[in-house]
Amino acid sequence: MILTEDSVQIFVPRTGSTSLKKAIIQNNPKAIDLSLDYPPYKHQTFLEAKKYNKPVYAVLREPTDWLISMYNTHLGQSSRIDPTKPKLENYGTVLNKKDILELWCFIAKWYILPNKCYRQIDWIGGSNIILYQDINSYFGFKLPKLNASKQQIVALDLEAMSLAKEIWAEDYKLYEEVQSGLK
Prior knowledge:
alpha/beta, 8 helices
């Protein structure tokens, strides 16, 4: 979470948060990195941010792209923060229903516990939303590409997509509303 003179930026995992955090701090000398108050997690929620009584901003990523990035990030490697996290093990290029269930359980165990979040909307809450694909134009500076996951998994099969749209239905709905200008 970054506090500036006029707003708070919260970070949702796998939405460019590492790059965005670095760029905001480099481009705004008065920005305060509040993530340091929540070690080892830099991802705080809208509920934590609103206590600063400033507009809160968060980035929303297209949900399928977010799930693929989340899976790719934990594919075959333990977490830097917590090496006891299990590795996700699909070494193909497409996620199936079993992989989505595995990812759901993984997120439930490793992200819900510290933040009570397993969907992007859980972090975002009532924040002002910036779409992931619009980050560079919104902030007016080029973000460095940091912490990007390797793109081994590139798609979900039909069963996996159907299950993902059921589990993360609110993320898909929110994304469609923001993209179409309804929110």
